[in-house]
Please model this.
Amino acid sequence: MAGGRDELKLLGTWTSPFVIKVKLALSFKGLSYENVEEEDLYYNKSELLLKSNTVQKKVPVLLHSGKPICESQLIVQYIDEAFRTEAPSLLPVEPSERAMARFWATYIDDKLFASTFRAGRAKTGEEQAEALKETFAAVETLAATFKECSKGKPFFGVLDKSIGTV
Model:
């Protein structure tokens, strides 16, 4: 695909759950892309990253034929809309279900990932305990929601009897 109309490059780092989310979306759609690993996001960001994401200067960034798309959720939505492949859609087609999927994706980013990152960066035991408490609360909410949404039908490929308690 190099040089082609649909050339894709993903700027990221292997440790980022946001980058992993985009890699999964690209994989589910069966798309080839060049993975551009950012070596040092704290002190030595690549020129390509700085030029592609001038506002936030963070990963992931998807370059599609040189045009940058930033923020993992927006990238996933872009992939789904821009690449109508034989693979299933990444998001539901029905507008209310699509909105619900976007809501839970935001919840995971804003509650689960944020509290997990805070726990990892905590300077005191109290800070870490509070962040972990928030993380476990977010997981409990997700588990309860998945169980409720799956009543009598598969949800993420499992039936509600398969979902354990937290």
Observations:
- The chain has five helices and four strands.
- Residues 107 and 138 are 8 Å apart (CA to CA).
